[in-house]
Amino acid sequence: xxxxxxxxxxxxxxxxxxxxxxxxxxxxxxxxxxxxxxxxxxxxxxxxxxxxxxxxxxxxxxxxxxxxxxxxxxxxxxxxxxxxxxxxxxxxxxxxxxxxxxxxxxxxxxxxxxxxxxxxxxxxxxxxxxxxxxxxxxxxxxxxxxxxxxxxxxxxxxxxxxxxxxxxxxxxxxxxxxxxxxxxxxxxxxxxxxxxxxxxxxxxxxxxxxxxxxxxxxxxxxxxxxxxxxxxxxxxxxxxxxxxxxxxxxxxxxxxxxxxxxxxxxxxxxxxxxxxxxxxxxxxxxx
Length: 287
Hints:
Blueprint (H helix, E strand, L loop, with lengths): L1 E2 L14 H8 L7 E6 L2 E15 L2 E13 L8 H15 L4 E3 L5 H4 L31 E5 L5 H12 L10 H8 L4 H4 L7 E5 L6 E3 L8 E3 L17 E3 L7 E4 L5 E4 L7 E4 L16
Parallel strand pairs: 4-5
Antiparallel strand pairs: 1-2, 2-3, 3-4, 6-7, 8-9, 10-11, 11-12, 12-13
């Protein structure tokens, strides 16, 4: 087993252009690429992106396994096992306690110590068979932006979600420019140009209430910050009491706690500068 500069490894019949390879090299260091040789010919390859993986309570260094493949003519000869062994040993030496990958054939990687962490699915529905579930007013203004202008707008949104979502990884500027927003023709596979749409809401938080099982909703934001408020409310960070009118309470990922004593018609911030609020509970006073 020998390390090599990034090969066009695997069994993909698409040969990336020199421009595509140069972009790839910016996010995949050559020392993190492995190749299997038969004589002077590369017949197998794999690599590992250096990731910062989000886990409950923080983040850890991780090896993001990628470009793994063995030519059909050289399978079942130990190439994949040898490459995985080298990659995992190297990750451990670099202080990366986790190796992660998206598997197209999940049965293979169990042999090397990988287990299922999550599942994903894609559903394609013909457009002529779809219709909106319900009509809702737009919460903001949508506009198309050029790809070279998109990162400052979309990256902060991704970062806020990633920080509190285990399994996501931090994206560097190089990752945005060379992996996400780089509209290379060979990646389209016959599709159209990449488009980026930004929905601008203006950072105006609000609570919405329905009293008819979702047929209509009322916006309630009196007492909430009027602009530049960027936070998330966790599923378990909102609670109600048993009073009449009902009191409503919620905590934010910015460390604030709001209360409403009139079923959301008005709000008051009762705590600030707390750690990220994951859960809110209501304790009724003893009689």
